[in-house]
């Protein structure tokens, strides 16, 4: 069961945005997220808006999906026609498992984005993929279609951990898919999950070391969160699985940070490491920096000029609205004032670049000294004693482990 959509205002049937969305648009990057809501198997821990092929039919089927997504792209182009024209700087195809679609369908969706807005000369185009959903030929075809990057859902290199997560791929395939992607000219990221029930610290070390052995230039490592309504949540409630404690998760985060740093990868966001700044995921950075993006697909979220909206969740409802010439948006909200300030704070402090001290609300600045004393915020950065000389709120490693607590303190 995927999470419920947020509550918000009713979105107009034509998708029109308020005039305020255009303010400052020329100075913001514009990206596109393409959601592919299909998986061959639904993993027990996953609460994303995904469906297996047998659950859907008609206009919501995998075979019809690219055409449906193209309808929303055409609608989006019309809605944004009055804003300053910006070529798309990043495209991210997520899911689900996007690569369960045929490469020509993914290429057509990317082509629709190109036709609607144009692509920047240095555009970053990423697709997520499962290791068992690609071949050397499909990866080469993706590169030929204009994709520049692939993010593989590795999750673990340990069979019993993958089994608990209901992952179906053979971990021995990871070095192969990384090599195939690189041979095709694609940049590669590996996604890992730590804190799976039954995963030992040695298991986690094996996973991180296996990822690094591929020579990959980007790694994401996320703590497992067991969401209500998932099959894993039921297993935990029944006592069939036992979750690790916070100390276990902290030890695994610190181990990953040590191993990744020793291999030459720096953290640039709490859960993401890259070899160089050029290897960082620019699409995700746009989210964290509050740029504009249009989310295409059932349940996808969008943000343009402080206006956030979200699409209806079910693929059949999504396809039906677009077939009738209606926006698929289910609701929206305008993020301004204190809400915008809090959101900027929540996202900004997660970045290694931190937040300029003078961009914090006045009351928050008085809390920084205490956070430095508690070892959660870097003292030299806060005092302007770093190389750039600017005073910034930058998390220490302990602060990264307690990032939510830092935000609560600053927002109090």
UniProtKB/TrEMBL annotation:
InterPro entries: Aldolase_TIM, Coproporphyrinogen-III_oxidase, Elp3/MiaA/NifB-like_rSAM, HemW-like, rSAM, rSAM_sf. The keyword Iron applies. It is found in: Cytoplasm. It holds the Pfam family Radical_SAM. GO terms for molecular function: 4 iron, 4 sulfur cluster binding; coproporphyrinogen oxidase activity; metal ion binding. GO terms for biological process: porphyrin-containing compound biosynthetic process. One of its GO terms (cellular component) is cytoplasm. CDD domains: Radical_SAM. Keywords: 4Fe-4S, Chaperone, Cytoplasm, Heme, Iron, Iron-sulfur, Metal-binding, S-adenosyl-L-methionine. Residues 24-269 form the Radical SAM core domain. It comes from the Bacteria. Probably acts as a heme chaperone, transferring heme to an unknown acceptor. Binds one molecule of heme per monomer, possibly covalently. Binds 1 [4Fe-4S] cluster. The cluster is coordinated with 3 cysteines and an exchangeable S-adenosyl-L-methionine. Belongs to the anaerobic coproporphyrinogen-III oxidase family. HemW subfamily. This is Heme chaperone HemW.
